[in-house]
TrEMBL record:
PROSITE patterns: ENOYL_COA_HYDRATASE. Its main location: mitochondrion. GO terms for cellular component: mitochondrial matrix. It comes from the Eukaryota. The gene is ECI1. Its EC number is 5.3.3.8. It comes from Leptonychotes weddellii. It catalyses: (3Z)-dodecenoyl-CoA = (2E)-dodecenoyl-CoA; (3Z)-octenoyl-CoA = (2E)-octenoyl-CoA; (2E)-tetradecenoyl-CoA = (3Z)-tetradecenoyl-CoA; a (3E)-enoyl-CoA = a 4-saturated (2E)-enoyl-CoA. Homotrimer. This is Enoyl-CoA delta isomerase 1, mitochondrial. It is found in: Mitochondrion matrix. GO terms for molecular function: delta(3)-delta(2)-enoyl-CoA isomerase activity.
């Protein structure tokens, strides 16, 4: 991923990601992809806050549809998808990595990962929650989501948000090693098993997609939510200045 400075998942970047995924899926010589970041120290800052602040309802609806599409397409991809997480990975960045089949995180205490939405005064929707529950179980997810926990590497491994923590200079080579193991499995059996495991979760969103968009638009348009997001963006800018 190369969307400096922080790989935020803007509408444009999400569209690019989806086009890239589709191209790779359509090319039958590809069987797996490794998602990693070109922005030093940052895997992805998550959803682009400027897409969710001070815009009109039509924009929010269009943006949310793209976020849903990213989740559905990556979560259900027939390819083996591995996240080589070489930086901090909050909220939507964590969600993207949770769509992968395997997560390798660099062992750097700054590289926290988690769904921290509550810290911004917003609520992770049910399909974010479902993805986390499927990964770390109900109790850990309940605690992580309510407290907006961002797990440093050792804790992320302990709770199961990531599958492996390795020294920073070994993230890419480890991801390639893991990829080789996954590609050794007969592909159609692996693909069908992935679908079996994931389809019920994806179907929940597929059957409620429009209602989910409407909920998001209603929620994000609230004055109180807009104020929270503006204040959070302001805090990020001040931190910099
Ligand atoms: C229902 C909805 C569910 C929501 C899900 C989400 O994902 S919500 C998202 C939850 N995400 C988070 O809570 C993460 C928020 N971000 C961070 O915590 C930090 O930026 C960092 C740790 C990722 C990088 O720290 P660092 O010191 O290396 O970098 P820096 O902090 O100096 O930022 C550089 C520039 O990027 C800007 N910008 C940053 N993030 C975003 C963004 N998401 N979007 C847009 N812009 C963003 C920042 O304002 C600044 O702009 P400026 O002043 O140049 O115009």
């Amino acid at each position: 991923m190369r969307n400096p400075p922080v790989n935020s998942l803007s509408l444009e970047f999400l569209t690019e990601l989806l086009i890239s995924l589709e191209k790779l899926e359509n090319d039958k010589t590809f069987h797996g992809i490794i998602i990693t970041s070109d922005c030093p120290g940052i895997f992805s800052a998550g959803l682009d806050l400027t897409e969710m602040c001070g815009r009109d309802p039509e924009h929010y609806a269009e943006y949310w549809k793209a976020v849903q599409e990213m989740w559905l397409r990556f979560y259900l991809s027939n390819l083996v998808v591995i996240a080589a997480i070489n930086g901090v990975s909050p909220a939507g960045g964590c969600l993207l990595s949770l769509t992968c089949d395997y997560r390798v995180l660099a062992n750097n205490p700054k590289y926290a990962i988690g769904l921290n939405e509550t810290l911004l005064g917003i609520v992770a929707p049910f399909w974010f929650k479902d993805t986390l529950v499927n990964t770390i179980g109900h109790r850990s997810a309940e605690r992580a989501l309510q407290l907006g926990l961002l797990f440093p590497p050792a804790e992320a491994l302990r709770v199961g948000v990531v599958d492996q923590v390795v020294p920073e200079d070994q993230v890419q080579s480890t991801a390639r090693l893991v990829m080789a193991q996954w590609l050794d499995i007969p592909d159609h059996a692996r693909q069908l098993t992935k679908t079996l495991m994931r389809k019920p979760t994806a179907d929940r969103l597929l059957t409620e997609r429009d209602a989910d968009i409407q909920n998001f638009v209603r929620f994000i348009c609230k004055d109180s939510i807009q104020k929270s997001l503006h204040a959070y963006l302001e805090k990020l800018k001040q931190k910099k200045g």
